[in-house]
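Researcher: Let's do a round of design. I'm pasting the structure tokens now; please hold your answer until I've finished.
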């Protein structure tokens, strides 16, 4: 297990090693979110130099123009590595779409939420088309879902 944390620069890099999960948890536990634009190309160039492996990219999926740097950089990884983009679903968006509209504001809220969900689906479809598996789960379930995806790939001898 290894890790690479980045925004507009590399923040932490732990080279993969056997039984490295504890070191990864220790190295990443104090990282704070950043408002800096993620430099996917730079980070993925570092990751691409590794021997073939599974790379799990934890990121949010926004509409296509905001996701353009991610979409442009991932094929570099997917040519050589098994790649999963893991993203947390937004239960508030789903609830806004499913809610019974009582006034115009509810209708507009549902329309905006539906467009946001549709944009995420379009980005996920583009990622899937480039050989990347997209994993979406509620925030609390995302770590378990990522482990299950890893186990499925391993069982199918994909990694």
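Researcher: That's everything. Go ahead.
Model: Designed sequence:
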């Amino acid at each position: 297990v290894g890790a690479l944390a980045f925004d507009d620069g590399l923040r932490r890099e732990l080279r993969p090693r056997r039984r490295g999960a504890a070191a990864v948890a220790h190295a990443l536990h104090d990282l704070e979110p950043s408002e800096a634009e993620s430099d996917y190309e730079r980070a993925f160039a570092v990751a691409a130099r590794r021997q073939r492996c599974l790379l799990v990219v934890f990121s949010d999926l926004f509409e296509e123009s905001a996701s353009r740097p991610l979409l442009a950089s991932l094929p570099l990884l997917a040519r050589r590595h098994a790649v999963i983009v893991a993203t947390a679903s937004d239960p508030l968006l789903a609830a806004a779409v499913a809610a019974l509209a009582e006034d115009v504001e509810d209708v507009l809220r549902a329309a905006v939420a539906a467009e946001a969900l549709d944009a995420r689906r379009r980005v996920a479809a583009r990622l899937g088309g480039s050989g990347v598996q997209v994993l979406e789960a509620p925030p609390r379930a995302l770590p378990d879902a990522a482990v299950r995806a890893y186990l499925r790939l391993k069982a199918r001898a994909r990694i």
